[in-house]
Amino acid sequence: MGARIGDPEDLTDLAELVNADIARWKVVREAQAAGRRVQAAGWGMWHVRAILSVGAENAGDALIWLLDDPHYCSDAARGLLELARLKQITPWPFKEPAFNQIWLVRERKLEPRFKESLRQRYSAAIRSRVERQLDAVRAMQRQADHSQPLHELAGVLAQLDGAHSAELVCNAAAVPARWNSWNRVEALRQVLFSGGPVPFATANAILREVIAEAAPHGFYQDDQSMSRVTSILCLMPFTDDPEQGVATIREVLAGGRLYGHVLRGVITALGYSRAPGALVLLTEISGPCSPNFSTVGSEWLEAISNVGGRDAAEALFAFIESARNGPNAMPLHEHHLIELAATRLAPLVRGDDVLRSRILGLVNVPGTPERDFMLIKSIVAMNSLDALLSTMNLAIVDRSHRWPYFVLEEAFQDLCLIKRPTHPDSNSYTLEPKSAMELRRKLMEIVTARGIGSWNAFSLLGRIDVWRLEHGKPQREPRHPYLDCGLKWPSLELFETPGD
Predict the structure, then answer these.
(1) Contacts of 363 (CB under 8 A, 6+ apart)
(2) Which residues contact 191 (CB under 8 A, 6 or more apart)?
(3) Cα separation, 228 vs 266, whole angstroms
(4) Rounded distance between C-alpha atoms, residue 144 and residue 137, angstroms
(5) What is the pTM of this model?
(6) Which residues, including other chains, have CB under 8 Å from residue 310's CB and lie 6 or more apart?
(7) How far apart are CA 25 and CA 9, in angstroms?
(8) How far is CA 38 from the centre of its chain?
(9) Tens digit of each residue's pLDDT (9 = 90 or more) over 253-274
(10) φ/ψ of residue 442, rounded to 5
(11) I need a labelling partner for 18 at 20 to 30 A (CA). Which of 120, 261, 338, 375 fits?
(12) Where are the domains of the chain?
């Protein structure tokens, strides 16, 4: 409370409290070393928060000085990290890591997170402390009992200077620990998210220790034990040997002890890994006929699309085709997964001429509503009027499901109407007419050709006329869709003798 109402001049009083606490802990450690059982509450975190709260200019100097105290070093390092940030962040413990940021950092596409002068100064101080702590721990016989402060300091250093201090952080994380695997994995993760390299050998050694600790009898007792293993499995495809990392994930999952929702992070990481064999492993882990799919369906589809390429598009296409088949077919109420697959497939089709031709060739082939939705989303994403008009030939077998075809109506509506945002509410808009002479002309050509899609084209022309009545007609757009066709509009002759 004193820190919240105090002034920067009160830092002297806080220093006296810190010195008294350090002296008290020195006595406690001496008593413990003598074999006496002494329990004492620590106030290190609160004192560091108080130093940060008063906002003194020399708060950084005070925290650097506290790095030398074993009781205060971890909290002081986290305080320095907070001082160096350009923008303070609120940690969210249940938020999954955004693994795409690893590539954004490596490609230098992310904005700076720290004040550069403070980052260099504080990272140098913490690096020196980590080096001394690492030498001290290595000289001990029971390293695992004394490594927790080292791993916590290494995690902070990885955030401040992971790219240049990667080797030191990885060496620190490699020191054995007793029930402290979270901090070791976090240190490696922060190295990757800072753009630094992580050796596969180091990550693999930590993984084996974590598995032995979490499943000493060959099985995991709770979700926390499984989460400790999957947290480091997520990092394996981003090490300096991603192919071997994928093989390690396959080896661990082959035991059958990890399944269901605990694999969500691993699946997401594989999707962003760009590692050879990632797509093959994803298809092995889950799929529409896999028991895991009910708990990881959305993550699996996102991961497949993030892999990218023709093989990923083929996997999504096969998923849509087989989603209603097999012993573990999806329930009807989970059609949102079909929508997600179609949405993710559409951008992949846009840049691949072979897939584009395949999609257009399926328009005339009858299929399920799910497949039709995939076709429509993909064709709309092509951003081509001729491709969009090919949907006039769509062979709709089951007309009891209308949801796949609303996307098609909206696409044509966007060609005829403008959605003008209504300020200040950006979620609302008004519809205004937009010229669609080329669209109406081509629709009329389809109608007069009396082919398979003539009736659909005739209905769409009528729908466009309704939009013109409701929202107005653009200037200089003729009432007739195509005067040179020689037919009246609207034409009762066409209505009475539809081509389909």
Answers:
(1) 375, 379, 390, 391, 393, 394, 395
(2) 158, 162, 166, 169, 170, 197, 198
(3) 12
(4) 9
(5) 0.82
(6) 348, 352, 354, 355
(7) 26
(8) 46
(9) 988 788 888 999 999 999 999 9
(10) -70, -35
(11) 120
(12) 428-500
